[in-house]
Specification:
- This protein is α+β, with helices and mostly antiparallel strands.
- It has a single domain (26-156), classed as 2-Layer Sandwich (Beta-Lactamase), CATH 3.30.450.
- Helix content is 45%, strand content 19%.
- The protein contains 5 helices and 6 strands; from the N terminus they run αββαββααββα.
- It has helices at 2-19, 35-51, 79-94, 99-106, 144-156; strands at residues 27-28, 32-33, 57-62, 67-72, 124-129, 132-140.
- The strands form 2 sheets. A 4-stranded antiparallel sheet has the order 4-3-6-5. Strands 1-2 form a two-stranded antiparallel sheet.
- α2 (35-51) packs across α5 (144-156).
- The chain is globular and about 35 Å long.
- The model is unreliable at 5-25 (pLDDT under 50).
C-alpha cells in the first residue's frame, strides 16, 4: 500500500512540475529538447529560407543525435535530408558548430577526417542550456553560408 501512495505522490509532483508557470515551455525536465521547441526552431529556419526563396531541409535532433523533427521544404533536394541530419548530429556530439570542422579541414588539420561520422560543413549548431548540449539544428539545401544563416535563425527562436 505504501508503494502505491508513494507512486501517486510522485506522479502528482511530476504533474505539478510540468504545468507550473515556472517551468519553461521549451524544455522538459533534465533540459531535454521538446517537440514544441524543435518545431518552433524549424519554423524560424524555414521563414528565414523563404524570405530569400531558398529551399532547405531542417533537422532538429536530441542530445543523443536522434531525430526529433524534420522539415523538407518543397523543391529541396533529397540529398539534403541526410546532410541536414549529419550537420545536426555533428553539432550535438561535439558540442560545437559543424563549421568548426569545416575550418579545421580548410586549415589542413586532416586528423579531423579520422573522427568518424562528421559532417564538416556549416549549417549545424548545438542547442546549449546551462553549458550542456540538449540538441542541435542542422540545415542543408543552399550554400554553406545560407544553411548556417537559417540554422542561426532557428536557434534564435528558442534562445
Amino acid at each position: 500500500m505504501r508503494a502505491r501512495h508513494f507512486f501517486t505522490f510522485c506522479l502528482a509532483l511530476l504533474v505539478i512540475a510540468l504545468f507550473s508557470p515556472n517551468v519553461s515551455a521549451q524544455f522538459l525536465p533534465k533540459n531535454t529538447l521538446s517537440l514544441a521547441a524543435a518545431k518552433k526552431m524549424a519554423a524560424a529556419a524555414e521563414a528565414e529560407a523563404a524570405k530569400y526563396k531558398w529551399t532547405m531541409v531542417i533537422a532538429v535532433v536530441d542530445d543523443g543525435g536522434h531525430l526529433i523533427y524534420l522539415e523538407h521544404m518543397d523543391e529541396a533536394q533529397i540529398g539534403s535530408i541526410e546532410v541536414a541530419q549529419g550537420k545536426a548530429r555533428t553539432a550535438v556530439r561535439f558540442r560545437r558548430p559543424s563549421k568548426f570542422f569545416e575550418d579545421a579541414l580548410a586549415a589542413n588539420h586532416l586528423g579531423v577526417m579520422t573522427l568518424g561520422d562528421i559532417t564538416a560543413i556549416r549549417g549545424g549548431l548545438p542547442i546549449m542550456v546551462d553549458g550542456k548540449a540538449v540538441g542541435a539544428i542542422g540545415v542543408s539545401g543552399g550554400d554553406p553560408a545560407q544553411d548556417e544563416q537559417c540554422a542561426e535563425a532557428g536557434l534564435a527562436a528558442v534562445h
